[in-house]
Amino acid sequence: MSTDTVEFVDDPSRDDRSRPADVSPALYNTDLAPTKREGRRWSAYNIFTLWANDVHSLGNYSFAIGLFALGLGGWQILLALVLGAVFLFLLLTLSGFMGEKTGVPFPVMSRIAFGIRGAQIPALIRGGVAIAWFGIQTYLASVVFRVLIIAIIPSASSLDDNSFLGLSTLGWIAFLILWVVQVIIVSYGMEMIRKYEAFAGPVILITMIALAIWMLSNAGWTISWTTPDSLTGGDMWLKIVGGASLWVAIYGTFVLNFCDFTRNAKSKGSIVRGNFFGIPLNMLVFGAIVIILAGAQFRIDGRIIDSPAEIVEEIPNTFLLVLACLALLILTVAVNMMANFVAPIYALNNLFPRHLNFRRAAFISAVIGLVILPWNLYDSPAVINYFLGGLGAVLGPLFGIIMADYWLVRRSKVNVKHVFSVNANGDYFYTQGVNMRAALALLVTAAFALVVAFVPAFDSVADFSWFIGAGLGAIVYLLVADRKGPFTDADGEEIAVASTH
């Protein structure tokens, strides 16, 4: 069958005559379809720049500097980050290979383990977390943008004194400008995201290294490697391992939907090289910058900063302050699009493939991220801890189930065409489209993960909740999974579309 007819499905208003006859319109459009191997453009450099941006996010700096405040010294922080980086390299490489082989995004990948209809469960959990954090991260970026605006136009500070729905006039201006910029970039699809990430990666690396050098010079080219409250002995090692585990948990969302990006990867080698330079090596640079920023500030005035944004605000030269703020804005937009914008786009596409495409789903996701008034969510500990924290706790079991099914049960054998079929004899139809075994494993392990996350009696192992959830998810699923097969291995080239759609 010719694949030329597939290209027209990108417009959901077209009739079903342009769709391949053996796939369901309830499961397929060109955003969900597998990508052709020929013409894939994501190289090792593109994978690397994903991590060059994401690793150096303001949230990650706040987390790593927080380890300094919790009593870890320079080398202990570096060790925690390296241990976490090794785990992440392995997990993300395995996850990335799934996307490279099948060419499909995460919601479609989830159909393999959960069934063609059961896949809505992991897709909506991942998408729901992402939409909330998209709004929150846009708000946090707008705070930096307000500093930039006031630095350029001091009189604009008068617009920062009132409040409407929780934001000042200047706050609304800054938020909406950044909101519109992100919507415009994402509306041009994954190819534009690839180009933006490639541009932003070097910018933020150069900026953070320059900021570290500047702080080092202010501290007389020496830093404090520890604080007076530094941990020793068993407590120190427990905090190091706990820090490494939390570092992995931060990426608990991204290890799930890494295939959204690697479905466009040129080869497995591109993924391995991009991950290697972007995770272990890049995190060594990140760790060195963290130690310099935190140690230099402590050497200067005995204060432990919360984020590099605090240092930027104190830059005395207006021109350099503006450049630093612009770099942080470029970074935050890059991280937000990669970690929090792409996932809900594919989740919504998976819900309504007949009616949505990438651009329409992007706009809907952005609108939801706006109307939830994310600054109010961010200021509510109950929402962050119980709602977003609860959803986040479920991501570990989801990852364990999906990875165990793909690598251990099926041995990476996937019939790609069948993930788009509603035929009752299809490989992923299961029971009315739901794999009840996977659903049961998720129900049991998600309940346990929530208990570990929220019950005070488990505080001692809370740092390891993602690993506990992922491990239990894999074990329980392997106990109940149907391993008899046979499992068919067939690519989706016949129904594939160009990876630049």
From TrEMBL:
Superkingdom, natural source: Bacteria
InterPro entries attached to this UniProt entry: Pur-cyt_permease, Uracil/uridine/allantoin_perm
Membrane topology: Multi-pass membrane protein
GO CC, one annotated term: plasma membrane
Keywords: Membrane, Transmembrane, Transmembrane helix
Sequence ranges of Basic and acidic residues compositional bias: 11-20
Chain segments annotated as transmembrane: 63-92, 130-153, 165-186, 198-216, 236-258, 279-300, 320-348, 360-378, 384-408, 438-458, 464-480
CDD domains xref list: SLC-NCS1sbd_u1
Family: Belongs to the purine-cytosine permease (2.A.39) family.
Protein known as: NCS1 family nucleobase:cation symporter-1
Species per Swiss-Prot/TrEMBL record: Gordonia humi
Lineage: Bacteria, Bacillati, Actinomycetota, Actinomycetes, Mycobacteriales
